[in-house]
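#onboarding

Welcome to the new folks! Below is a worked example of what a typical request in this channel looks like: someone posts a single protein sequence, and someone else replies with the predicted structure as tokens. Don't worry about understanding the tokens yet, we'll cover that in week two.

Example request:
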Amino acid sequence: MRIAIIGTGYVGLVSGVCLSDFGHDVVCIDKAAEKIAQLNRGEVPIFEPGLDDLIHKNVAAGRLRFTTDIAEPVANADVVFLAVGTPSRKSDGHADLTYVFAAAREVAAAVRGFTVIVTKSTVPVGTGDQLERIIREANPDADVAVVSNPEFLREGAAIDDFMAPDRVVVGMNDDRARSIMAEVYGALDPVRHPVLFTSRRTAELTKYAANAFLALKLAYINEIADLCEQVGANVQDVSRGMGLDSRIGLKFLNAGPGYGGSCFPKDTLALVKTAQDHNSPIRLIETIVGINETRKRAMARKVERPSVANCAARRSASSA
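Example response:
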């Protein structure tokens, strides 16, 4: 299978490298010339355990290459993955789809023959519909199927998450894409690593629903941690006592300073905004976002308190 990946950020680079290790012919494309030059020198711009070895292995095997040119790889591709950033808009918290739409227009101009265009970026429900309209406007003759295939990668464990996923979610409204996407993930054991085929909007929402639920677990255990401090209980033991229940699980039950990273803050906020726009607010997630902000401020105050106390003690000692 010939695959083009638009974007060599965290998701795009990991996805492209892993797909090449599945045996596909993969070209990773990025406008950042220095990043592409770096990759072509064998230097990896992000830290992810094992990624550099996989890059060297698949480049040497002729299955993986890097370029700034979009036209030739897209024209030859059976599948094009869009893996560009979707940061939160500062104005209202919605996901900023500027880069996704710009990439779609460039891809539309370059496609030749039937091509599956896959959104790997995290995008709100209905983005696939917008992409179809953009592609038709940019190239009315383009024969494409737009698919949603959200990523579920953890930093530090991304290769394992891609190569041995709990599940792969593929959403489409065009049945022609099903067999192609099945071949893309054909290297996976379908029993241990099932591919779930859904409608496109279902796949788009599944990503947000999953991340928001994990954020909910983190926010919940942080509130339990506050209660533990007040009543003299051990939050780590509470977490273990809860997590050993197979219905709950131990993952994402570690108390801390609040959830952060590149995904949970923007994804929970985007889900809240999407739900509000469709007059179906998710009060639980709205509350979780608020709890997390409170938690982060509270942890910052805890860090500051000893410093304030130490300064006061030094002032007192010096005056004495």
